[in-house]
Amino acid sequence: MDKKIAKNRIEKLKQEIDYHRRQYHVYDRESISVSALDSLKMELFRLENEFPEFISADSPTQRVGGEALAKFQKVTHRRPMISLYDAFSEEDMRDWEKRNINYLAERGESLSSLYYCELKLDGLAANLRYEKGIFVQGATRGDGQIGEDITLNLRTIESLPLRLFKPAEKELVALGLKEKDIKNLFYLLAEGVIEVRGETIMSKQTLAALNKQYALEGKPLLANTRNGAAGSLRQLDPQIAAERHLEFYAYDLILGDYERGEIVLSRAAADKLVELLGFKRVRDNKLCHGLAEVFVFQRYWEKNKDKLPFFIDGVVVKYDDLSLWPRLGTVGKAPRYMVAYKFSAEQATTKLIDVVWQVGRTGVLTPTAILEPVKVGGVTIGRSTLHNLDEIERLGLRLGDTVIVERAGDVIPKVVAALPNLRTGKEKVIQAPVHCPRCGAEISRLGDDVAYRCLNKNCYAVALRRLGHFVAKGALDIEGLGPKIVEQLVNEGLLEDVADIFALRREDLIGLNGFAEKKAEKLVAAIKSRQEVALSRFLFALGISHIGEESAQTIAVYLSKFLSSPIGRPQELLRVAKKCRLDDWSALADIGPVVAASLFNFWHSQETAALFTKFEKSGLSLLLPLPASGALAGKTFVLTGSLNSLTRQEAKDKIKAKGGKTQESVSRLVDYLVVGEAPGSKLREAEKLGVKILTETEFLKLIQ
Ligand SMILES: [Zn+2]
Fold first, then answer.
1. In a domain, 630, yes or no
2. What are the angstrom distances between the C-alpha of 142 and each of 27, 124, 145, 323?
3. Ligand 1 centroid, distance to 596 Cα (angstroms)
4. Looking at the structure, do residues 16 and 126 belong to the same domain, yes or no?
5. Which domain holds residue 34?
6. What is the pLDDT of residues 393-450, one digit of tens each?
7. Known catalytic residue: 484?
């Protein structure tokens, strides 16, 4: 990227990110999804890495945490409320484990691979302080050191105990607590300080019920459960928090201080202990032996998260052995002993490169967005449907825009918004085409129909038939590209003509209905395996009228004489074939004047020229037929007049048996003219073209 462009883009990104940040963190309004915002931050981060001279102190990449609102009292956390490292892939997780192993190995210690995995609730974190077992203060995370005092609001939460329960000794023994620790815990409950951390959330059900009510009352709706929770806790009037029905789930317990390891228990036991103290906890949390089990757990919940009553955005993976926590310690602002293994972001930002129009079965034109490939929902996508021109207008899209794309679960990816503030002024308005991109017929918009249509009734059927023929057995024979898939790809706008097949990419297919990653990869591999194809098969596959498998073979043998052996390029083939005159074609065996005309027209059409340009670009190579074996291999004979010792059919069979070929008329490509009694005009023709002439005796000698 050019320096000036980079500087501009960085400025614009900074403003855009700051605008959405304020909306989100100051006003609890979600003007853009967290993942889309992250995507913008990532782009800014990469640009700043490339052009460090443009990094400024006010850049969002230089910020750590949020700041407390002035209206609440500030609370200094006894122990900082740490933020977590994010991992987005199994590779990230393995790296995290490896770093920890190395870190401890340097100190002569070893690491356990027992992990406690907890669902990562998406709400507002809070720290609760209990003195002598009584809830005295609750605070938000704030910047990690100083938070806001939201005690009054937290007190309205029914699932938050105002006084801690005292568990029975038996229950504590069952959790593995030693006698000394039990004594210590009872002391803390009666005389000391216990802090509990957890997530304040709004359930999906509560959000739906509240929004229904607010809609009736004409009040603004809550954007999502996270905003529902955060917004409620930040209200100065606790009455509002009370009516929001929030819930509190505990996920951390500070008995003394972990960093000094005062009470010895495992993380799994601590999780159970909070329940004994009177808190709600996530029952689906699980102890995992090794990262492989962690991966299974994380994948399971990524798939099944919608079944939960609350939103989660990943899994927090913690070392179960709490004695490891102080030994691993923290690096920067985040601890080494736990990591947030996030689900794939469902939204990301990217550039709209182009809009292509596809023609469906009914002739309706549908626009498809061609995007700069971007990872969203765990896979890389390069295109997405835009439905119709009205949708483009509704989104206010222009070519070159930065857009937000979304892929939730197995739903087909879509463009959900454009970010017009990031424009440079070079973006272009998107218009519907005037002619059909497939057949060139006129396009019209009928009445108040939102759709544009191709008026050629055969447009779709012809395209389907051509594509179907191209990939069928005997032609390119591409596995996994049956008629149904061909039709689907045509409908998705991925295939307009046969050359498009070679341009299919993994990221085009993923996200289509029925295309999981594996199926997409398999199909792309099957297509790739046909990038080197026998010339005869290719010629047959083109679907030139009247050309069957056998005549395709004849044409292949004929044309290969002019092509560089053993592999021809599409453009070379086109050049050679275009040089052939009508008579050259009709001179070939089994090719009459009608077929010759069809061949001639095919090679000289503009459509063919366009097709071959695409074939050439796709790297297609054509394997030329090997010369036939036998004494007469590669030689072509024409017979004229009648022979004495054998019939014309017998003569033809003998030539074939020796690897030679026969044809009916003389051309410059014929090697021998065999002359019997009473020869016709072929003799004169052969003499004119300088073709070698054989008498019957000479011919018999040759075929012996
Ligand atoms: Zn058309």
1. no
2. 15, 10, 7, 28
3. 28
4. no
5. 3-62
6. 999 999 999 999 998 766 778 999 999 999 999 999 998 888 888 788 888 876 666 6
7. no
